[in-house]
Amino acid sequence: MFQTLAPGGFDSRKLAPLYDKIYKRLQAVSKDNIMWFEPCQFPDGLGVGVPFLSGVTNAGFSVPPGGKIGSATHIMNEHSYCCQLEPAVCAATGEP
């Protein structure tokens, strides 16, 4: 269970297989379809003071779902809400 909850773990174990299935269906309809995908938002504020949980973490995707690095049919939408759970994180880093 901890592996799934670790940064990137949910992405690689749960989202990537789901996104792979979706991408295959999109491509079956048209090879021109573009897939937007997004990692799970692992909160920056969770685990403040615990080095392996604090700060920005890597997404759990080694390649785009169903594709390859450099794919013209994938867009990774990456954003975070650092202050949502821990306003002190933004105060310390100056992030909005």
What layout of secondary structure does this protein have?
Blueprint: H1 2-5, H2 9-29, E1 35-37, E2 74-76, H3 87-93
Parallel strand pairs: 1-2
List keywords for this structure.
two-stranded parallel sheet, mainly alpha, 96 residues
Number of domains: 1
First and last CA, distance:
33 Å
The class by helix and strand makeup works out as mainly alpha
Number of β-strand runs: 2
Percent strand: 5-15%
| Estimated radius of gyration | 16 Å
Unreliable residue runs: 47-53
Largest sheet strand order: 1-2
H and E string: HHEEH
Instruction: State the assembly state of the protein chains.
Output: single chain
Mean pLDDT rating = 76
- Overall 3D form: elongated
Number of helices: 3
* Biggest sheet statistics: 2 strands, parallel
Helix content: 25-40%
Structure in a nutshell:
The protein has 96 residues and is mainly alpha-helical. The chain is built from three helices and two strands; from the N terminus they run ααββα.
Question: How does this structure look, described?
Answer:
By secondary structure, the protein is mainly alpha-helical. It has one domain (2-93). The protein is built from three helices and two strands, in the order H-H-E-E-H. A two-stranded parallel ribbon has the order 1-2.
